[in-house]
């Protein structure tokens, strides 16, 4: 029997999921929450096989909850269950540690198969999500497209250094650092330092711990 936790801030959705999951002979709902904090608490205390999380929730959203669950309850596999199918959200969710990404227009059988697949360690992706993942991997610029200086700035920023520290280390102005980071973000298609750090790690720019 697969143990499952769900978290969604919409009562109608939660009730519908509870009723649907009750029809699955091989899945047992062991906890229900209304936000990411609930999901984290339930996963830490109950260690379910799978957590099914909404993306946008108050207090703590699904992406941050995923990141913390993967850190504090690594036995639990997280699947995002949402109406959002844009590439940025999908990639952020997967980079945070989600094993799957399903959409709320899925039919009951698809959701059931997704939960089972996640419990087996597979990665259930809605067709739209899978297409966006493939597109992101196809269009992502190679690390070699960055200049040497841009790579230096990116690595230092990804390592946690502030702009002032980067400027001091490289012997350039803080304004120049900001300019390099702006061009780096545009070049690799990210919006902030966290995403840039994930990109740098994924592309082998950061030394292993």
Summarize the structure.
With 209 residues, the protein is α/β, with parallel strands linked by helices. It is built from 10 helices and 5 strands. The chain is elongated and about 65 Å long.
Could you tell me the mean pLDDT?
87
- Measured distance between first and last alpha carbons: 37 Å
Strand content bin: 5-15%
The number of helical elements comes to 10
Structural class: alpha/beta
Explain the overall architecture:
This protein is 54% helix and 13% strand. It has helices spanning 11-21, 36-46, 62-72, 87-96, 108-119, 127-139, 148-158, 163-170, 174-188, 193-202, and strands spanning 2-7, 27-33, 50-53, 77-82, 100-103. The chain is elongated and about 65 Å long. A five-stranded parallel beta sheet has the order 2-1-3-4-5, with helices on both faces. The longest helix has 15 residues, at 174-188. The protein has 209 residues and is α/β, with parallel strands linked by helices. It starts with a strand and ends in a 7-residue tail after the last helix.
